[in-house]
């Protein structure tokens, strides 16, 4: 429960930065040096992490990122043919029905260069930035199966080579991958492991001549696994650690199907994204040359994490693209269908659904392009937290919107005559893959707390050493708190510092979930505010509508956040955690619903 | 109060003569009446009269003996009044003590006399005899007994009767009947209610008793989260299966029958009985066992008692000593364990004064229990069979020294038939568990629970 303190921290630590600056002013030259160092590192501190310290790092989010005029023209020139292709040539119904993307469609995609959107031009790709990738994602998402096939290929499949591969590896593999001649897949998940690296069983053993690794093991749920020519495979290798002890560590390998010893299982029959190919891939003494290790041997964990973290941001634009399309289709129906002599669109409850859809699309879009813009800035900004937030928000928003759109049509939406049921099935996967939303919430909350906690414990140490400036600053903050804060959340220890009970916060998932939700909302609010203020100032068309959406969303999110924060208080009546846990415990103990039937009698 | 008693006395005195006559007639009807029985009939009436004057508490405090031998003595010593009715049951019971014969006795009594004279005595006698006839848990029989009361006679008709204890003996008898039902855990039904209303009226003591039972019984019906089935399986293997599942209380645990009970005739013509060996082990226990340090022995201990209603069964456990603190290895935190989020926040936190929480009194380490088994013959040879059976799924057992620490305990499964025997064993077992260094908590709990359950 003390975990709540972390959150409160965010409030109390507001003065953190001021402290640094005041130090600079008051104290000596060396402090100025640290100040500068801090500045140069600022690139690494992205916006969301600072929210955990109670800091609004406005410079990161305001103004809303823009692209140059030429870039805009360039992207529009890409978008037009892709849009045409998707509306005219792609038959989503057929893909869904036959559970296969026809080869001519795939060829069309390859011709458009969609297999190498982010591969640099020197390797034959389009070399587009994250922002432009997001823009294309809006259109690609109109067909879930194609979107997943492409994402498995380039968002995760070849990403390993792109971000951690050597020059030779890039030169050897990227051109064929970018042209679509080779399709890539990402092989991490195993029957016994999802996020748990410790249960990866696939082994890579070095041969006698130390020139090849032999891969053994099997991977499940591999998108494109049935036909991929190239795979990024993660396997255990024996590594001699610094202390001379042999340890099993994970390494990443580029594996060509041509190496031999690779078999693919039967494609899974799925609920949605049926056209994408998902199957088991097993490796039986598959020889991989040593030079095909991505990064260094034993460094696979970092590679995997980076790939996973970098692929998520595009889901926001994909979701908004889908919802925008749905709004068009549904509005048409609502405007023409008559009930009791009135159009459907005149009924309040139908109107509400459209408002929800528009608002969600707006927020997703804002978040996605803000994040993409942040990622496109020079330096290597770490936007994994923001990307995860975009993913969680847009997958859940997308699910709600599709369901609402279907609801507008009522029974018709439920039939296969309309595409809504397909959208509904397709978009359900968004909540599951690329890290389930539950896992991502843990990631958001814990990564942020880790960051905030480190800085704050550092501060306490300073203070203990007798740093007068720090102590004064704490005192000042205490005064400020006493005057400013209305509710004591009981989250922080003395002087508002991190409580040692933090060590166990990892187990408090319900609390972490709320922390993550609050942060996601904060980020979403920032995104819409930033976007709509830009729209006002440069006078974009319908910017008043944007302002309206932004206001509505922010008010809503504000109240939700307030409620969640109240829930975080230990003894508040809103906090039902104990009951929730108890219910679950009792049910899980019996592994069944344990209430007696309402018709049961005792006498 | 006195006034009412006088009235009652007069009333019953009026009944005295006819009742004697009736008894004689009854006796003659059933079997040849002897002079002796005539005398006792007279006694009956006298006794009944005295009783009637006595305080109502008299009957209540008198327990209903369930032990047949005791009852016999009782009857000889003081309760001579009931001889006729007891005899009635005894005579019928010579053929067979079943529900049918019991019902026949009741029917005979009801048909004998339209006024049902002596019905209170008859009902008391019948209540006593119920366990003997094996109908003590049969609701229809209780209703039939209630039906013996004449209807509407005892219903108070005016406020004075209502105010005072109207027909106290009959009411007491009715309450006694309901009490016996309560003791056996039998819930009356609507038929019982209708009968009580017909006999005693809707504000009478038996009615109150009925209402109380109906208030509390449903509330307590499911109070036990671990109910023992009313009918325990006869087959020792099934019984072992049930009891092992009960002790383990783990839905993943798998019961394995290592040996079915059977008898074989060896070449030399001797009969060899193979006892049943049934064991249970959960995947968690297998994992624990696999991690066990092969240099430390594991122990087969037992027998420990488990009570299931009136049956006591014994089980054996395979366990190890708790790890000494120096051997405990905490799995080091691996930052490269989870692809998605940090499994632990590595904040460089200092301990403050008073933050030391390493000392915790409530955590008492107990050794892990790896498996449990039940067998009808707890000798080392039989248990060895269990261990070798376990070894098939837990290969580590081949490398771990296994010590047998068996207490001299009962080797046989205890049946319901002999309650004395069971109780004696129980006492023995208790002393054994006391001498043990670490009494198994599960055992203790099971023990208390099964005794605490009201039958």
What does the radius of gyration of chain B come to? Answer: 32 Å
From the spread of the alpha carbons, the general shape of chain A counts as globular
Please give the count of helices of chain A.
23
Instruction: State the assembly state of the protein chains.
Output: heterodimer
- Low-pLDDT segments of chain B: 12-82, 413-455
Task: Tell me the helix content of chain B.
Answer: 40-55%
The total beta strand count of chain B reads 8
Number of helices of chain B: 17
Biggest beta-sheet profile of chain A: 4 strands, mixed
Number of strands of chain A: 10
Helix content of chain A: 55-70%
Unreliable spans of chain A: 1-42, 485-500
Fraction of residues in β-strands of chain B: 5-15%
The most extensive contact between chains is: A-B, 38 and 27 residues
Explain this structure to me?
The complex is a heterodimer of chains A (603) and B (455). The longest helix of chain A has 30 residues, at 509-538. In chain A, strands 1-4-5-8 form a four-stranded mixed sheet. Chain A is globular, with a radius of gyration of 26 Å. With 603 residues, chain A is an alpha+beta fold. Chain A has helices at residues 4-12, 16-26, 29-41, 47-51, 58-61, 69-88, 92-98, 103-111, 130-140, 144-157, 159-164, 167-179, 300-310, 314-336, 348-376, 384-409, 411-414, 420-427, 437-464, 468-484, 509-538, 543-568, 577-590, and strands at residues 184-187, 203-206, 212-223, 230-240, 246-256, 262-264, 278-289, 293-294, 338-339, 342-343. Chain B is built from 17 helices and eight strands. In chain B, the strands form two sheets. In chain B, strands 1-4-7-6-5-8 form a six-stranded mixed sheet, with helices on both faces. A two-stranded antiparallel ribbon of chain B has the order 2-3. In chain B, helix 1 (2-30) packs antiparallel against helix 2 (35-53). The interface between A and B is medium-sized, with 38 and 27 residues.
